[in-house]
């Protein structure tokens, strides 16, 4: 299939979406997802490149699927922020009860080698990589004890290897899950406490930018942040910690954000609120957060319905129906006049 | 011993081994089949002596955790099922993402958590008979159920950007035509119907039933336009669990207890 080089038409270059193409079986659907991202006016995607998919045995890389995604994302004019993680079985070293997220410290060098191989292969095509995802959650840390010093060691092991392979690569520290977990919780660490501990462990020297997950949950985007509340502006508290540790010069990337509009979930808002809050979140960030490079919405589209509340976080349905929020975000990104009245006023009894 | 004799002996040995393996398989199959003919045993289905139920308590009115106090349709249903089976119910609250893992790793015996039946999961789990349908309903101000064909060209009220919005778009792309009347909230769409400012409303079943409960004098008829049956998930084995569960559900339907629970939380 011959696809000509495209350009993203946008007036809001910070608009970005998290795509989920790694589990998409049909190449045609990958192409369609990327084209719809461009048409949305998003100039970047966050895309997961699971180590377990590309190095199924030690030093035996198989990049076909990554090549395809990256080639076609570039053809659509999209920048790629690559998230790396997910451990192949051989690197889990037979740990009992291990999961795809279990990375024993003996395998940090192997992960670093994968990240370096990725950075070298896609030099000039991928400018940003994220090292791991939400390491403050027990689940994401393979049910091993969550420990910022361990993650600092992973960053340290990876940073030098990647820079040696591709000096231009910007390395993002993995975004922390926004959570209010109390100290000692088996589920994970509070994100603010974790970031402080990460800096205290000396990790600051081993990342160029911070990835942030900043969901709105029930609050509107302008709601002020507080240490004991999860909302969109919690990102500011993480930024404050960066400043506290002298990292003002480093930018941040919100690599997951948005609201959910499941009709029953207690963490959801109404669809009308979701659309309005999302656009206002971009407006707030554009006006107030000069340190922010990208604001990426979770998520563009799932390959299939989960038949659960996460289905209500997407912009496009698995069968490629564009949701109204897609059109609202498109109008914002491309500077189009949006419809002023998306719904009718509450009816009154005659 | 001659080579041919050794070969014969080896072949005989292999044959005997294969026959023994086939017999073992047959016996195991017969045993399982026989077990399934026997009445289901609560002790085999729930060896801990309690029914351990996994639930994500963040979906009112199905389940809600209010400071450690669980309440909702699913919670009452779980208790009623446990009572039918004659064992105590013990709840384990989980996040959605932990539900099926907890079931398949035997941390819980079953999941009652507003779960739609997912055909893609049936390699790992089985589902009970459905106990509630939270699909989309098409409601009208009339004593008889609405007919989609008869609504062509009429105004249909719905919640902006909801599943109903998507369903209407799908119908329109299939050639149907309606006057679309989006509202900010489901209750406004239902107000529009009740005030006769729309010919029909397309709405999530739970929202419709709850609204109708608030307006008992309103005579509305409905039909399901899309189905989303909720069911209880169990592991494949032991077979007893699903049999006990379906029997308990059937008894609750028969006695009217299931309808009473649904009516209490959602409306009938």
Would you write up a description of this structure?
The complex is a heterodimer of chains A (350) and B (268). With 350 residues, chain A is α/β, with parallel strands linked by helices. Chain A has one domain (15-334): Alpha-Beta Barrel (TIM Barrel), CATH 3.20.20. In chain A, 33% of the residues lie in helices and 13% in strands. Chain A contains ten helices and eight strands. Chain A has helices at 27-40, 51-54, 64-75, 89-92, 108-121, 148-165, 191-200, 234-244, 271-288, 324-334, and strands at 15-18, 44-50, 79-85, 128-131, 170-173, 209-215, 252-258, 292-298. In chain A, strands 1-2-3-4-5-6-7-8 form an eight-stranded parallel β-barrel, surrounded by five helices. In chain A, helix 5 (108-121) packs parallel to helix 6 and helix 6 (148-165) crosses helix 7. Chain A is globular, with a radius of gyration of 20 Å. The mean pLDDT of chain A is 96. By secondary structure, chain B is of the alpha/beta class. Chain B folds into three domains: 1-38; 42-132 and 232-265, D-Maltodextrin-Binding Protein, domain 2, CATH 3.40.190; 136-226, D-Maltodextrin-Binding Protein, domain 2, CATH 3.40.190. In chain B, 44% of the residues lie in helices and 24% in strands. Chain B contains nine helices and 14 strands. Chain B has helices at residues 3-37, 42-45, 73-85, 96-104, 163-173, 186-194, 205-214, 239-255, 257-265, and strands at 51-55, 58-59, 63-66, 69-71, 89-93, 110-116, 125-127, 132-133, 136-140, 155-159, 179-183, 200-204, 221-226, 229-235. In chain B, strands 1, 5, 6, 7, 8 and 14 form a six-stranded mixed β-sheet that branches. A five-stranded mixed β-sheet of chain B has the order 11-10-12-9-13, sandwiched between helices. In chain B, helix 3 (73-85) packs antiparallel against helix 9 (257-265). The radius of gyration of chain B is 26 Å and the shape is elongated. The model of chain B has no long low-confidence stretch (mean pLDDT 91).
């Amino acid at each position: 299939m011959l696809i000509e080089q495209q350009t993203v038409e946008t007036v809001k270059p910070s608009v970005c979406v998290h795509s989920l193409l790694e589990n998409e079986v049909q190449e045609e659907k990958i192409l369609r997802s990327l084209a719809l991202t461009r048409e949305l006016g998003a100039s970047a995607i966050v895309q997961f490149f699971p180590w377990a998919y590309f190095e199924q045995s030690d030093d035996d890389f198989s990049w076909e699927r990554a090549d395809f995604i990256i080639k076609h994302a570039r053809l659509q004019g999209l920048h790629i922020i690559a998230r790396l993680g997910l451990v192949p079985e051989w690197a889990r070293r037979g740990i009992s009860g291990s999961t795809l997220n279990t990375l024993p410290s003996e395998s940090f060098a192997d992960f670093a080698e994968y990240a370096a191989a990725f950075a070298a292969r896609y030099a000039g095509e991928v400018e940003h990589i994220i090292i791991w995802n939400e390491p403050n959650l027990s689940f994401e840390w393979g049910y091993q004890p969550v420990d910022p010093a361990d993650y600092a060691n992973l960053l340290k092991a990876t940073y030098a290897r990647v820079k040696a392979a591709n000096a231009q690569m910007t390395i993002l520290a993995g975004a922390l899950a926004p959570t209010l977990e109390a100290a000692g919780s088996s589920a994970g660490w509070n994100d603010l406490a974790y970031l402080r501990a990460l800096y205290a462990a000396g990790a600051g020297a081993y990342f160029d930018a911070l990835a942030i997950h900043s969901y709105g949950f029930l609050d509107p985007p302008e709601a002020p942040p507080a240490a004991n509340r999860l909302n969109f502006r919690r990102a500011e508290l993480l930024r404050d910690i960066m400043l506290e540790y002298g990292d003002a010069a480093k930018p941040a990337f919100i690599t997951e954000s948005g609201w959910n509009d499941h009709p029953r979930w207690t963490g959801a808002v109404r669809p009308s609120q979701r659309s309005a809050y999302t656009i206002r979140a971009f407006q707030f960030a554009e006006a107030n957060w000069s340190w922010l490079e990208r604001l990426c919405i979770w998520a563009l589209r799932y390959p299939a319905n989960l038949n659960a509340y996460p289905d209500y976080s997407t912009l496009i349905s698995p069968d490629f129906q564009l949701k109204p929020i897609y059109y609202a975000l498109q109008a914002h990104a491309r500077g189009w006049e949006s419809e002023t009245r998306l719904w009718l006023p509450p009816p009154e009894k005659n | 011993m001659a080579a041919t004799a050794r070969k014969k002996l080896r072949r005989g040995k292999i044959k005997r081994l294969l026959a023994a393996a086939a017999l073992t398989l047959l016996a195991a199959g017969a045993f399982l089949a026989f077990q399934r003919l026997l009445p289901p045993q609560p002790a085999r289905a729930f060896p801990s002596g309690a029914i351990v139920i996994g639930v994500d308590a963040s979906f009112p009115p199905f389940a809600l955790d209010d400071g450690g106090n669980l309440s909702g349709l699913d919670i009452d249903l779980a208790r009623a099922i446990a009572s039918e089976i004659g064992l105590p119910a013990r709840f384990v609250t989980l996040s959605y993402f932990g539900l099926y893992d907890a079931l398949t790793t035997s941390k819980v015996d079953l999941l009652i958590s507003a779960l739609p039946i997912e055909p893609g999961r049936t390699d790992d789990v089985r589902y009970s008979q459905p106990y509630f349908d939270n699909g989309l309903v098409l409601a009208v101000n009339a004593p008889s159920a609405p007919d989609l064909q008869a609504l062509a060209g009429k105004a249909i009220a719905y919640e902006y950007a909801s599943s109903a919005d998507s369903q209407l778009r799908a119908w329109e792309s299939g050639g149907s035509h309606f006057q679309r009347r989006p509202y900010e909230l489901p209750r406004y769409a239902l107000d529009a119907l009740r005030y006769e400012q729309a010919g029909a409303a397309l709405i999530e079943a739970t929202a419709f039933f709850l609204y109708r409960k608030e307006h008992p004098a309103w005579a509305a008829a409905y039909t399901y336009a899309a189905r989303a049956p909720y069911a209880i998930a169990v592991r494949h084995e032991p077979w007893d669990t699903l049999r006990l569960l379906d029997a308990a559900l059937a008894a609750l339907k028969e006695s009217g207890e299931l309808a009473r629970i649904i009516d209490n939380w959602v409306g009938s």
